[in-house]
Amino acid sequence: MTLENARQQWIPINYQYPLSAWIYKTFAAADGEFADWLHEHGYAFNGNRKFKLFTFSNLRLKGVKFQARPAPVLSVSPGSQELLLSFYMEEAANHFIRGLFSGRDMVIADKNHRAEFRVSSVECLPAPEFGDTETFQCIAPMVLSRGRMTDGKLRAEYLSPEDEDYGHLLKENLIRKYVAANQEKVATVESDGNIENQYLDLPFDTDLWDFKLLNTPKSKLLTIKAGTPQQSKVRGFLFEFELTAPPELMAFGYQAGFGEKGSLGMGMVERLQLKQEPILY
């Protein structure tokens, strides 16, 4: 997706939440019922946790400068910018996406700043074919957490990909999202808590899995709903990794996003061999 700004713009440094809100508003403008379904329900895992199976990259900005005062902001010179969007949806829902964004005005705003861009073009790229082992780099922070009791409250502990449990938890998260999106194809059973024992009829071998970190991860602390009573902090990481997994599961993560909070622009990756290949609408 190519964005145009004819004059200088100032973007909030924590732009992920307002950008996500703009995507939802774009859905709503096309079909309110579809947008309500996506926001309120998404895909359910065992009727419980909800997943919104889309993600987006960091904004790819030209002529950008960081300004710390009066509030942290990105100053963007006039020109062409880029945003990558990726969706995993049922074939029947594709008509909601195609052509939805072209020609629209993008507004990214918080209580201090407002930036406006025009979507000048939208290109749809086919999904690549994956083998059993591929290498990727994050083009948006990847978020993964586990619950930990702190001061009598269960809080999210955000993990670095250097954590010894990272690969296993990434696999669990990905399978849960896959099952949520493909409930008509996957049966579940109660188990002793081991996620791999909960599924029947998965169309791939869950034992085929290996995660390898390829470089030193870069930590990114992001503020969601900045400056509001609902403000929260999320920590993600940018890194390169090698993944061995069933190609169908790998393709699913590529389209829906790896890890948590994909609909807030987390977990988008590109394959190192072939750049800029997410499914774009």
Topology:
Layout: E1 2-5, E2 9-12, H1 16-30, H2 32-40, E3 43-45, E4 49-51, E5 54-56, E6 64-67, E7 73-76, E8 79-82, E9 85-87, H3 94-97, E10 105-109, E11 114-121, E12 133-138, E13 145-150, E14 153-158, H4 166-181, E15 187-188, E16 199-200, E17 210-213, E18 218-224, E19 232-238, E20 240-244, H5 247-256, E21 269-271
Antiparallel strand pairs: 1-8, 1-11, 2-7, 3-4, 5-9, 6-7, 10-11, 12-20, 12-21, 13-14, 15-16, 17-20, 18-19
Concise account of the structure shown:
The protein is an alpha+beta fold and 281 residues long. The protein has helices at 16-30, 32-40, 94-97, 166-181, 247-256; strands spanning 2-5, 9-12, 43-45, 49-51, 54-56, 64-67, 73-76, 79-82, 85-87, 105-109, 114-121, 133-138, 145-150, 153-158, 187-188, 199-200, 210-213, 218-224, 232-238, 240-244, 269-271. The mean pLDDT is 84.
What's the CATH class of the largest domain, please?
Answer: Alpha Beta
Give the beta-strand count: 21
The total of helices stands at: 5
The percent range for strand residues is 25-35%
Physical arrangement of strands within the biggest beta sheet: 8-1-11-10
Order of helices and strands: EEHHEEEEEEEHEEEEEHEEEEEEHE
The average pLDDT is: 84
CATH architecture of the largest domain: 2-Layer Sandwich
